[in-house]
Amino acid sequence: MLANRSIKKAFTAGLISFLIIGIAPAISRPQVLLAYDAPASDTRSEVTIDEDDSDEALTEVFPPTNVIASAASTTTVNIAWVPSSGSQFVQVWRTHKANAEQKDYVLLGTYYAADGKSVSKSLTPGQTYYYKLRSYTKFSDGKKVYSRYSEVVSATTKSAVPAAPSRVSATASSATTVDIAWTPSEGSDFVQVWRTHKANAEQKDYVLIGTYRAKDGNSVSKSLTPNKTYYYKLRSYKKFSDGRKVYSGYSSVVKATPKVDAPESLSVTRVTKDSIGLRWSPVSGSNIMYEVWRLSSSSATPGVCLGRYSGTEKISTNLKSGTIYYYRVRAYYYYIGADKQAHRIYGPYSNMVNAVTLKNVSNPVVNLSKSADDVLSEITSCANEYGWSYSTKVIKNTSSQYGIVFKGQHADSSDPRLIWIVNYCIKSEVDSYGVITSRIFITEDGEYSSSYDAYNQELALDLVLSALISYGS
């Protein structure tokens, strides 16, 4: 219905006409029916007017000028115009299609031309809408004269800012990578991942390392340095068809420290009289290599480094037959520093393995290349590791042989497996208290005497060690 001010204006105009020309005015309220944002299927809403101004009717009507569409909120767009001279009303048409034909437009409503504005409501956030307007004048006989359409204008509704990703986590997945995971926020299209190595860093200290689809929920931070802590924070954003981006705030900061792991599953793959083959599982990460270490006993650290390798297999060669050897492996990360030198960051050692090279049966006299003290050290180290209490001594007999005497008792000496051990320890004895005694003789120059059963003596050393390990395990 016509606003009060418009009614007063119309009534006053009639009264002035009566006073000037002496004609009684028709005291009737001009009835104007306006429709705002009519449904898309309803194009019948229009302005009707009873007054007869055909005497002053214009034969040509021009479209509104200075038409402007501007987003007012996530669901509304403001339309403004300057009315053309002589026009009474303005139609506002809308579509969401770019370069649309007339059939794609919907009449939103008809407004007084002089008002110069209207509001397009119930819109979709972040959607671009297109508008065009036209004027018309209606006469008392029902005739309407329309202008052509104005130029098309457009506006994109504002979008609700997406929330930052939630449940953000950072987990070191190798020596040089960290896995990032998140739960995407509703309405977000993409996620940015930012990284720094500074604790309590400012935003300027962070580096954008990648942009990912929000729904993916994960990414990988690569080319990192082991033993260095990295800090991460994420933010979401929504991207619209016109290229605009709306960003969230940043998530809480999470951190992770990649490390070089110990090689796993170190094992012996082959044994000959002078070689032992080894294999281990690879350590994850880039720029990873391995050191292989050989030891004469399980406690003879650090041992001898056999070399550095990029693969996960090694054959230890030039060994002595019938001899026990111990091995372990460690991985390291390498890089070239600013000093142009190679640098290494080591991980822990792997598990330790051992193996005995095969005996050279064609020559029963074997050169152990060990003094009596070395053999004794090997036996006692093994005994210590596997829980034996013992007494030892080195003696020299009349045949110029050094004798190593080991007398030990395990805490669980009542175990019947002890008899099994004695059976396999040649030249060994056990008494009724479960005490095992073994003697091994070596010549003064480190070799067995040819007049002595060297083969059996060497076998005794291997089996004593094996017995100590088996019983103590």
Short description:
With 473 residues, the protein is mainly beta. The protein has helices at 4-21, 372-385, 417-424, 454-472; strands spanning 65-71, 77-82, 89-95, 106-112, 117-120, 128-138, 144-146, 153-156, 166-172, 178-183, 190-196, 207-213, 218-221, 230-239, 245-250, 254-256, 267-271, 276-279, 288-295, 304-309, 313-316, 324-336, 342-349, 353-356, 388-396, 401-410, 428-430, 436-443. α2 (372-385) packs parallel to α4 (454-472) and α3 runs antiparallel to α4.
Care to describe what's here?
The N and C termini lie far apart (100 Å). The protein has helices spanning 4-21, 372-385, 417-424, 454-472, and strands at residues 65-71, 77-82, 89-95, 106-112, 117-120, 128-138, 144-146, 153-156, 166-172, 178-183, 190-196, 207-213, 218-221, 230-239, 245-250, 254-256, 267-271, 276-279, 288-295, 304-309, 313-316, 324-336, 342-349, 353-356, 388-396, 401-410, 428-430, 436-443. The chain is built from four helices and 28 strands. By secondary structure, the protein is mainly beta. The strands form seven sheets. Strands 3, 4, 6, 7 and 8 form a five-stranded antiparallel sheet that branches. Strands 11, 12, 14, 15 and 16 form a five-stranded antiparallel sheet that branches. The longest helix is centred in the C-terminal third of the chain and has 19 residues, at 454-472. It folds into four domains: 25-156, Immunoglobulins (Immunoglobulin-like), CATH 2.60.40.10; 166-256, Immunoglobulins (Immunoglobulin-like, Sandwich); 267-356, Immunoglobulins (Immunoglobulin-like), CATH 2.60.40; 372-472. Helix 2 packs parallel to helix 4 (454-472). 12% of the residues lie in helices and 38% in strands.
